[in-house]
From TrEMBL:
Protein species of origin: Planococcus wigleyi
Keyword Amino-acid biosynthesis applies: yes
Domain Quinate/shikimate 5-dehydrogenase/glutamyl-tRNA reductase: 117-187
Descriptive protein name: Shikimate dehydrogenase (NADP(+))
Xref: CDD domains: NAD_bind_Shikimate_DH
């Protein structure tokens, strides 16, 4: 019988996940559908019950439900437990299991570039996105991570949790040439005209500079990094790889990520 999957969120109309997963289902001849469902917060529990009753095989969760879905699930994997937020749910034959594939998705997108795990990494930001990436970098074996954040206390807390160092924004600017990977996880750059979270004046040429934002495709951070001859990585890869990890959990199939990155870049360009 045809399987079905969904993404739930509020709002949901602009999600690129249906396009991505339906393209992959087609490419691999998998008889399945993936639909966007607009779920308002007060209807989350009933919507989940309805999806279960109708035999959903798995789903993605976007804002604002990534945390509020947790109590309804049968169990959480390690990534979701560390984050206490879930972006992917799969049915394991017995129960609905929550995962958070954002951090691992980011790390996969980074490893496509010339990066090795002994690299000195600077993570800018200490919010939810930074947390997922910090844990995923650790899981992947990155040993030298430094965190900087506008609110220094949050950088210190996250650093203590994962076994990293914390520096102030000013110190990170001064020591920028030490790092060969710089990851921008703050919301700065989502709206136009915002100042960079840190000055990139001292960044070394050849540094891999990654931003998790993909609208716009080129943020002011990436624009500046390009001027400084860095290798720039935008957030499209993270989006595609977090979806690919979900797709693998649902179907056991590894989808074509490179082609999807191209398709989505064209759509957004
Ligand atoms: P998300 O889940 O997207 O990471 P978040 O948890 O609200 O969202 O975290 C937002 C991050 O962006 C934080 O690191 C925040 O810094 P503070 O901890 O000091 O708030 C950072 N951020 C947001 N606006 C910023 C700005 N204008 N300049 C520098 N950092 C900013």
């Amino acid at each position: 019988m045809k399987k079905w999957y969904a993404v739930i969120g509020d709002p949901i109309a602009h999600s690129l996940s249906p396009f991505m997963h339906e393209t992959w289902f087609d490419e691999h001849g998998i008889d399945a559908a993936y639909i966007p469902i607009h779920v308002e917060p007060e209807h989350l529990e009933k919507s989940f019950e309805a999806m279960k009753t109708l035999g959903i095989s798995g789903f993605n969760i976007t804002l604002p439900h990534k945390q509020s879905i947790v109590p309804f699930l049968g169990s959480l994997d390690e990534s979701a437990m560390q984050m206490n937020t879930v972006n992917t749910v799969h049915f394991d034959g017995k129960e609905f299991v929550g995962s958070n594939t954002d951090g691992d998705g980011f790390v996969r997108s980074l490893l496509v570039h010339p990066v090795d795990k002994t690299a000195k990494v600077l993570l800018i930001g200490a919010g939810g996105a930074a947390r997922g990436i910090a844990f995923a970098l650790k899981r992947a074996g990155f040993a030298d991570i430094t965190i900087t954040n506008r609110t220094f206390r949050r950088a210190e807390e996250l650093a203590a949790e994962i076994g990293a160092s914390a520096v102030t924004l000013l110190e990170s600017e001064e020591r920028l040439a030490e790092f060969s990977v710089v990851i921008q996880t703050t919301s700065v750059g989502l709206s136009t005209g915002e100042a960079l979270p840190i000055s990139l004046e001292r960044i070394k040429a050849g540094t891999v500079a990654a931003d998790i934002i993909y609208t716009p495709l080129v943020t002011p951070f990436l624009e500046k990094a390009k001027e400084k001859n860095c290798v720039t990585v935008n957030g499209v890869g993270m989006f595609v790889y977090q979806g690919a990890i979900a797709f693998e959990k649902w179907t056991g199939v590894q989808p074509n990520t490179e082609k999807m990155i191209q398709l989505i870049t064209e759509k957004l360009g």
